[in-house]
Amino acid sequence: MRETAAEAARAQLVDLDVIHGALVLAADGLLLSRSDPELDSQNGLARLNLLFDGFSQRVEAAKVLLSDPDLAPGIGEKLVALDAVRNALADRIDAIDTTDARTIRVVTTRLHAAAPIVQDITAAAVLYAVRTVEIAQQAERSFLRQLWIHNIVAIVAIVAMLLLVAGLSLWHRVEGRAQHLSGILGKAYDSAVDAIIVVDADGRIVLTNQTVTRVFGVPGDDLAGHHIGALIDMQDVQPANAQPEDAVVLPPLIAMGVTRVTARRPNGPSFPADLSVTADIDLDGRPIMIVFIRDMTAAAAAEDQLRIERLGAERNAAAKTAFLGMMSHDMRTPLQGMIAALDLLDQTGMGQVGRNLVQTARDCSLRALQQINDVLDMTRLNGQQQQEVLFDPPAIVAAILNELTPLAAGQNTQLALRVEQGDTPLPSFVGTPPAFVRAIYNLVGNAVKFTANGRVTVALSFREPSVGKFTLDVAVVDTGVGIALEKQESLFEEFKMLNGDRAHPREGAGLGLVIANAAIKQMNGTLGLTSSPGEGSTFSFSIDLSTATDSASAQTLSQPAAQNRHAKTLVGPRNILVVDDNPINLALLAAVVRQLGHNVDEAKDGSIAVGLAAMRAYDVILMDVNMPVMDGYTASRIIRAGGPSCDAMIVAVTAYTDIQYSDDVRNAGIDGVLTKPTTQAEIAAVLDGYLPQETAPAPAPVAGDPERTEVQRAVAALSETLGDDNAIRLMKAGLTEVAELLDALDAHPDADDQAAAAIHRVVGSTAVLGFSGLSKTLSAAEQAANARDRQKLWSLLETVKSDRASIASALAAHTA
């Protein structure tokens, strides 16, 4: 019975390696079918199950055939390992689903990992055949020796003859058995998926299987005596100065397992291949190496396709992030005119109804600005590293809690700060204050929103794990409504707002916790959450702190580089220089400053500003950053170099939200940054000597927008600031500027490089004038020009022409 089972096992073992290779290809194909809708994943799953059944049968056959430790020494552990792989994959393949990418990837990975074991067992089968032949030959030699002895002894001639007959019978049986086993193993050897090459100690080819002919395109016999380096590029594993014909299969390859190499066909192109090597000795005791080579052309192509798809997905994600940042940045420009006009309008002697409408418009504008800030924060934190500067965590948290106290009071909630630092005084720390501010502000703000009649506590604990190395543990603890466990997993998803037990009627983009999480990751921390419904929530994280080694050169959160020039508050009417290349922005900002009771000079670029500053001492200079002729950075450096205005407070007024701590700002001697759109209160605070801080605006309620047309609202807003005549004149000038732009683009349709810059100039002015729809279309046209998408550009410009004509008609009707 045992011999019969062994014979059946040998028949099964013939194609063990073939079945395993087919199973690997089927698993790879099933994984690839998930990204290629033209591939039939169901048929692939059925084929995978069928092949695995065959593979399982061959594993059992290997256990039967190679169970003799004398004929197959050292193979027992590999048989156990292969059996364990087979058993581990059985349950996963039975439960696999075509949509379960993770399980498919695990099955594929384990099948690939089993390849060396299968190859070792195949090699063991080859050696098994060799040793079986050796046993037969040894039996034959033993028989002949006995026959020779019995021939000498004449007196036992008859016995010798009988023994001869018996010996011959035994010899034929052993020889037949050996030939049968050799035939079975030879079939397995020649039908293996891998090209199997036996080489001597010098790397010369001694023996090949038939797969070598299929893989390399030349008969195996023709390769006998050639060096293995003729078939494999060994540069990755050989010394740099080794020649291919001198290369040998180094022992390190044996320990490397399966290695990806470049194989060469003598009469054809190179191709990717997986190579593994095992060492042995031949019948004469000489060292040999068995080399397994598998053609990986199809697998490499599939890997390349997956890599291309992954890179494409990454590029798409990056493009979406860039688009969000760009659009959010551009949307700040029209809000500049809206908020400034509303602040000025509120100062006029209008009735209560008018004031209510102004307040409604201001609330809408601040809410839109808050949402734009959230999107900008998210895109900036996902893609930008910030410079480390001096900062004081307890002071920052105290300032944020003070700012959020009115919001908490509306919820009848108390705010508290607890600091644990031990008895040793803390050193000065450096870090990334903007990221720390965003994390604390959003975590505390979120806790206040969902905590009524309770308490929100921020706990700061400083630890010193080793000398000079500090860690800050932060916990924001609230007594609010809590969060159910099943909803915590999606809490940090972008644009995600919870429903159910933590759902209040909240406005916003759902980015608060996403921004906090991104900010903490930027500080190399991890945001944790402990919460349950009705018991409150605790958000916590830990960050490593660096001590300040050169405090003289570092900057603090509240004081940019040159702020120490203004140690006292400015008093009385002041001389103000407003610099902006956009005439509409320039006129509006100058009007706001004049209404605040100050003396104003205007400059339309940096060079004019430098000339004015050289002739007059200004108290404050409101400087645009991006201007033609001379930009704001260059102008600020020149003004700081000397002259009557060298000690003026210079404040950058820009739509860029991420330049406050940049080297350009510090090197130019700029004291602070106002981000467009700015309110009258913000401008008044700057003119009184208080620079803007890195905090976020408190949430404002949202009310309905007045039912007036775009042109009517724009005229009303500008008229309150500039007067009716000036407002109408400025709006007509803005429409004329758009018409001139269209004429210039029509005259030079091929000027791609200049088109985007020309369009950008009118995007901001039309937004400040209140033509939001026209500004949005122009912004899209600017993007198309930057992308050199002429078809889309000219389509959008046709829309601009139509919108401009409609606005001109409405403005004419309004003034009739």
Q: What characterizes the major β-sheet?
A: 7 strands, mixed
3D shape: elongated
- First-to-last CA distance: 112 Å
Beta-strand content: 5-15%
- Percent of residues in helices: 55-70%
Label the structural class.
alpha/beta
What is the number of beta strands? 18
Radius of gyration, in angstroms, nearest whole number: 40 Å
Q: Give the low-confidence spans.
A: 497-509, 550-564, 693-708
Explain what this protein looks like in three dimensions.
Helix 11 (297-346) packs across helix 17 (583-595). The strands form 3 sheets. Strands 7, 8, 9, 10, 11, 12 and 13 form a 7-stranded mixed sheet that branches. Strands 2-1-6-5-4-3 form a 6-stranded antiparallel sheet. A hairpin with a 5-residue loop joins strand 5 (270-281) and strand 6 (287-295). It has 816 residues and is α/β, with parallel strands linked by helices. 55% of the residues lie in helices and 14% in strands. It is elongated and about 145 Å long. The termini are far apart.
Protein topology:
Elements (H helix, E strand, L loop, with lengths): L1 H12 L2 H18 L7 H25 L10 H19 L6 H13 L1 H38 L4 H35 L3 E6 L4 E4 L2 H6 L3 H4 L8 E2 L18 H5 L2 E6 L5 E12 L5 E9 L1 H50 L5 H32 L5 E3 L1 H18 L3 E7 L8 E3 L1 H17 L5 E12 L2 E10 L6 H4 L23 H11 L5 E4 L5 E11 L27 E5 L3 H13 L3 E5 L2 H10 L4 E4 L8 H10 L7 E6 L8 H6 L3 E4 L4 H8 L22 H13 L1 H24 L4 H18 L2 H15 L3 H26 L1
Parallel strand pairs: 8-10, 14-15, 14-16, 16-17, 17-18
Antiparallel strand pairs: 1-2, 1-6, 3-4, 4-5, 5-6, 7-9, 9-13, 10-11, 11-13, 12-13
